[in-house]
Structure formats: structure tokens, C-alpha cells
Amino acid sequence: MPNVSEADARQVAEDSRQREWLPSFMRDLFMGTFRPAMLPDYPAKQWRPEFEQLYNDIRRFLVEEVDPVEIDERGEYPPEVIEGLMRLRAFGLLVPTEYGGLGLDKLEWCKIMELFGSYDGNLLGLLSPHQSVGVPETVKQFGTPEQKEKYLTRCAQGQISAFALTEPDVGSDPARLGTTAELTPEGDAYLINGTKLWCTNGTVAELLIVMARHSETGKISAFIVETAWAGITIEQRCHFMGLRALANGVLKFENVRVPKENIVAGEGKGLRVALTVLNVGRLSVPAGAVGTSKKCLELARRWSNQRVQWGKPIGRHEAIAHKISRMAAMTFAMEAISDVSAQMAIDEKLDIRLEAACGKEWNTCRTWEIVDELMQIRGGRGYEKERSLEARGEEPMGVERMMRDYRVAKIFEGASEVMHLFMAREAVDKHLQKAGVLLDKKATTGAKLSALPSIAAFYAGWYATRWLGWGHWPRFSDYGRFAGHMRYIDRASRRLARQTFHGMLVYGPKLEVKQAFLFRIVDIAMELFAMTCSIKRARAMAEQKHVEAEQGGELAELFCALSRRRINGLFRDLWSNEDAYQYNAAMAVLEGHHTWLEEGIITQEMALTRTVESFGSHGGNGRHTPITPVPEVARETVVK
Known about the structure:
Layout: H1 6-15, H2 25-30, H3 49-65, H4 68-74, H5 79-87, H6 106-117, H7 121-132, H8 135-142, H9 145-156, E1 161-164, E2 180-183, E3 189-200, E4 207-214, E5 220-226, E6 232-237, E7 248-259, E8 263-264, H10 270-306, E9 308-309, E10 312-313, H11 318-347, H12 353-378, H13 380-383, H14 386-391, H15 399-406, H16 416-427, H17 429-439, H18 445-468, H19 483-507, H20 515-543, H21 549-575, H22 579-590, H23 604-609, H24 632-639
Parallel strand pairs: 1-4, 2-4
Antiparallel strand pairs: 2-3, 3-7, 4-5, 5-8, 6-7, 9-10
């Protein structure tokens, strides 16, 4: 594993960025320009007959042939389930029809992922990474004609693929990548050596996309690797709190010979390939979240009508009613984000990196909140397993399984913190293009001075318009009942841009480490995007004369009201907070100044070594702390 500095790690991540931009709604939003007309029309519910048939076949298969409780208990994918998915050609959902796949567009794909998300996270965890970051999408986007003919055909026939990037010491920091690819003396192949961790589908895959570093140049490339080749071993299958059937493992590569023609997109393009295909993965994750949230809403509605306490159903009590209303409003908004982002991917006219990242982060966080609220509504029954509920004659609702399965959604495909950092970097890209030299620690004074005239010219016009734009009546009057919310989004986007600029002025080069500030900026933008998508959805329902248009409008209004409250709080917290206080307290903990707070526990060292220290030792570090007797007055008070 290479030894890299913080600056080197940042540079590797920077070099892997996609620098070219198509028009981007969220990028403009961060810069204070609100352009709702840029977004595509909200997709109508008009599906191709072939897709409707596929959707119904998959739904029937899940209900009649898949037992998610059994899969959870066994921790394995039953062979008959895998065979059923192959029969349905589910491993070729995104593979073009010319290679034997089903050729679904991104909206159709997301609706299938939503269906799986409502029923079994294990199957979602099998199909989503295989298609979106595994061989199908990677080769479809970046493969040569020969690679497509050879490997897409195999995926369409049911061969499972996996994506191998993470290593024991490498998570979101690719600069530390230790797996190497060395060109053979003959020059016709690479020898890959290294270990990959948490490779989802890795224990059942026949095909892999492997990220490896060229020994000669240090560049990172993507390779198509077949697991049948010599030198690949499954070191261990990993087991988790939830998603217990997940075919996830540790893979070791020892002099694995990979033909030179199996490199994807050329030498050194691996991270860019990964980041690009992750956009597709980040479409399927929020779609799965929608399915999970809809299932939670259904269970909450059923139970809150059935369960009677203090003379009326619990859903009629305000405490529970507020939970249910938030669940409904959030689910409405999540589906709007998923549908709009998928439609953007179909149109291919807009850059979707920020919208896809927003969908992944915002939808997974809201869904986790919804799962948690459902657990609270169900109470002890939510904590009880389905088999146990059924054995004593109650309806089996798999809330505890859902909670175990769903928690990881805030971690994989980009942990929440990483998603915030990714969006924050893209959000300030325009500023870095215009004034990055002023924030560059390596830039000379001369370079900064020479850049000042052009910087001043840009910001003189840009900053003034962030104050002078009109965000009041009669603007957006054609949005009817949502006009006020649209005007709010417009004003808030300009305020967001000003606050981001103020942060650059106040913190300078240190802005990159002010993560609490940057995360609030990102959270505001995500809320504004969610509001916009919700309004577009409600407006489309009215224009298309949906039977549920009025109910959709009510949910959109409720969501916007809740979102505005969150946004206002985030704006306040940008400059009124305890960020420095919290950071300093954390450093004190890390440096061992608060180990006294850990007294009275079985320490990790004790658990690992099976040795116990004498009572009164200080936090397991061998120092003795005398026990202070309880004062007599206090003891009397306790007794009384």
C-alpha cells in the first residue's frame, strides 16, 4: 500500500473528477440560479407493454416463489431463486437488447429496484450492484465493441458480476489503493496482485470489475476479470447485521493474468469510470429507498388503524399522527426525486452527478428515519421477529428485519459523510474555476495578484445579483398553490450562494476542513431540490388530471412546509453553532483526556485478552483511581 500524504490523497481524488459539465440544475442552484424549467417534465405513468409484462412477472415471482424471511434466516440465496431471476432475465435488465438483455431505460430500472426494495433487501443487494457498478453498466458505457460482445452477452444470460475497489486500508480514499497491475514482459497481459474487501457478489460472481494501480506509472485502471482464472481465491465470506444473504467477501489476487484487452476505457481511467457508473448505482439506491418507505407507510397505516389504546386507534393520537404524516410527505418527495433524476438520466441532456448523489444521500437518510419511526409505532411488536409474531397468532410484519437490512444504505455506494463531501466539492467548482488561485496554498503571491482583476470583474456582477434578484409576487404565479414555495426556493438559492461565498471569504483555504459548514450548505441544497421535485410531481398530477391529484398536492404542500422549517434552521446554524467547541471536545477524547468517562465497563482490551483489571483501575490503562465514598448527606437524601 502506498504511503500518501493528505495533499496527495486530495490530488488523486481531484484528478479523478469529471471536469466537463453538461448543464446542471443543482450546480446552478448552488450558485444562486434557480431554473426549474431546466428539469425534464415529470414522467407520466405510461409504460411500454413489454415493461408492464416484466414488472408483473417479477412481482408475481417475488410473491409466489421468494420467502424473504427464509432468505434472512438461512443467510443464503436459494438456488431456485437465482434460477428464477435468470429465467426472468433479471441479470440483464440494463443490458442492451442487441446483446440479449432487456434494455430497460433508467426509469423502468428504478421502478424494478423500487419493487425489490419493498420486499427483500437481499435481492436488491444482489441485482443493483451487479447491474449498476458491475460489468453491465461499466462495459455498456466504456467497453470496446469486443468487450461488449463478449461480456454483456454473458451477463444477459445470467452470469453475476461484482465491483472490486475497497481494500482493508482503502475505503473512500483511492490514493491508498494497494492492488497492483504489472505489465508482463511479453506486453500482452497484466498480472494483478492484491486483496479486495467487502466485494458485494464477490463470492458468487463469475465476472469482476477490478480497480488496480499500475506499478510503473501509479495510475489506477479498471479491469474486467473472470473469477475462473488462476490466482483468485475467496479468503472469507463476510457476514453482517442485516442483508444476511449478501454474497460479500474478501478476494485475494495472486499473479492473476488479465489480457491487456480487458482494460476498460484505457490506462489511468479507472476512478473516472467508477465515479461515472456510480451515478447509475446512485439511481437504484434511492429507488430502492422509495420501495422500503412505501412498505413502511403501508405497515404504519395498517397497524395504526388496528391498534386501539385509550379508546381510539393509535393513529388518531396526535403523537402517532404526526409521524404518519411525515412518513407520507417524505415518501412523496423521495419518489419525486427518484423519478426526476431517472428521467434526467434518460434524456442525457443534463449533468446528473449532483442529483444522483442527492437522491442517494437524501432518500437513504429519510428512509432510515421512516424505518425508525415505524419501529416506534409498532413498539415491542416491531422489535419481535416475524416467526415469533406468527407463532403466537399475530400478523408477521418484518420491521426488525427491515431495520437490520436498511441501516447499511447510509454507508454503501458512498457513506453519508462522503456524499456530503462529494457534493460540497462539486458545489464550489465554479468558484474554484474563477477564484481557486486565492485558495491555493501553493500559489505564489504574484499569481494571486495577477488573478485579482478577472476575479473582481466576475464577482462584482455575480454577487450583486445574488442580492438583487426578484423572488416575490408575481413571479411563478403560474404554479398556483405552489407559487409561494417556488418563490421561497428562488430566494433561498440566492441566499445559499451568498452564504457559500461568505464562507470562502471567512475561512479561505481552511474552508475545505470546515465540514460542518459545508454539510449544512449541502443539506440546504438537497432540501431545495426535494421541494422542487415534489412541486413538479404535484403539478404534473394536476395537469394530467390524476384521480389523486388533490391528495398529491396536499402532500407536496406539507412537505414544503416541513422542508422550509429545516432550511431556515440550517441557515441559522451556519453562523450560530458550537462547531469549534465540539471539535475541540472530540480531540480531547481522541487524545485520551476523557478516559475517566469509560470507567465501569468491560473494555475492548479485556474482552480480547480475557484479562480483568482490579476494580478502580482507570479506563483500562493501569492507573489506579481511588473510589470516593458517597457523602453522608447525599446518602441520606437518596434513602429518603
